[in-house]
Amino acid sequence: MNPPLAPWAVDPARSRGRRHPEPPDPDRSEHQRDRERVVHSTAFRRLMYKTQVFVNHEGDLFRTRLTHSIEVAQLSRFAARTLRLNEDLAEAIALAHDLGHTPFGHAGQDALHECMAAHGGFEHNLQSLRVVDGLEQRYPGFDGLNLSFETREGILKHCSRRQAELIEAIEPGGVARRFIDGTSASLEAQLVDQADEIAYNAHDIDDGVRSGLLDPARLDGLSAFGPLRQEVLAEHPALAGQGRRLLLEVLRRMRTRQLRALVAHSAQGLADAAPADVDALRRLPPLATLPPALRAEAIELKRFLFDALYRHPQVAATNEAAREIVRELFTAYCSAPHEMPADFAEADDLRRAVADYIAGMTDRFASREYHRLTGRQPFPSSLQPALSPLR
Ligand code: MG
């Protein structure tokens, strides 16, 4: 028997509902249904072949958007359960949070945003909402997955004022409202946002070291990492010669420490503010936050990852090749829409349809299309890395 939900949790029995009303399910809460719709979606399966940091062909053991999303769901569920929140909702948001990502990670998104600059731009959070609100087409009565307000609210993590006003015009008082009136999302959504960061800070170190691009010796100077490494070595001196097992144990402790601190700090904030219900909580500034000392450590870690990994010359070269693919695909489909499936080719807004089509692609499908339409190799041979040993 689960403990009762906290007063500020999202109560599934009091959901604000779906855009197309549906009768309740006798066996599942609204947010359980949302989670299951996400897991059955095509966009979810595509995450398996979408880049997190390393492009799919660079190795079989790097995180993909799918394994990243599952890690985020796991951390989110722990946090939600510990705080007596709606665990199903947190899981649904986490599994859906990256559905709008383009192939090739942020490089793909940046290129698509440039292509769309004069036509409304491209942003992956908004795209995630477009996926669940319309682009997935599998139910007889509506386009999209017709998710509940609370799941959609969590998916729309960021939004510009201009975009928020456009959404608000179509859906008054809906998921974009909070970006206009400065209110917050549910605590479940806030926790997923934090869990996302905790997950990628840890797994990008793991993948960075595995790739050989990140020198593990450089990690010791980080306040989130160095002291934990000393702690592990003091407890397990035999790990000194075992780089990989030592690294994984330090990363495990780092993730756990951040997650537990997030939960404890959020619990303290909730006890102090004592919101009467979720709507009172939405009127407060975000309460799911790391304590200041750990926040500072996380910022230091993020900066380090930017300098040492995300801007590493080899990653930058791969990203440039990926941007080239996206730009060329965009140009090719705009000038020859019939190269796309009919429902995209015949859309009223061709450029948006091209962006939707490209955004939905996996890394390897985009690479194949690039080769088909331009005759060129998608990634020069200098960017075909020697695969690291399977560990
Ligand atoms: Mg993410």
State the low-pLDDT regions, or none. Answer: 386-391
What is the number of strand segments? 0
The portion of residues assigned to helices is 55-70%
- Which fold name fills CATH's third level, the topology? Hypothetical protein af1432
Number of helices: 18
Proper CATH architecture: Orthogonal Bundle
Q: Separation of termini?
A: 39 Å
Topology pattern, helix = H, strand = E: HHHHHHHHHHHHHHHHHH
CATH superfamily: Hypothetical protein af1432
Structural class by SSE content: mainly alpha
Biggest sheet: strands, sense, closure? none
Rg measurement, Å? 22 Å
Bound compounds, each kind once, are: magnesium ion
Task: Specify the CATH class.
Answer: Mainly Alpha
Number of domains: 1
Give the overall average pLDDT.
Answer: 94
Strand content: under 5%
What global shape is seen? globular
Structure, explained:
This protein is mostly helical. The protein has a single domain (30-206, 248-374), classed as Hypothetical protein af1432, CATH 1.10.3210.10. Helices cover 59% and strands 0% of the residues. It has 18 helices and no strands. The protein has helices at 30-40, 42-46, 65-82, 87-96, 105-115, 124-135, 149-155, 161-170, 177-181, 187-211, 226-235, 243-273, 278-282, 292-310, 313-335, 342-345, 350-360, 363-374. α7 crosses α10. It is globular and about 65 Å long. Residues 386-391 have low confidence and may be disordered.
Quick overview:
The protein is mainly α. Helices cover 59% and strands 0% of the residues.
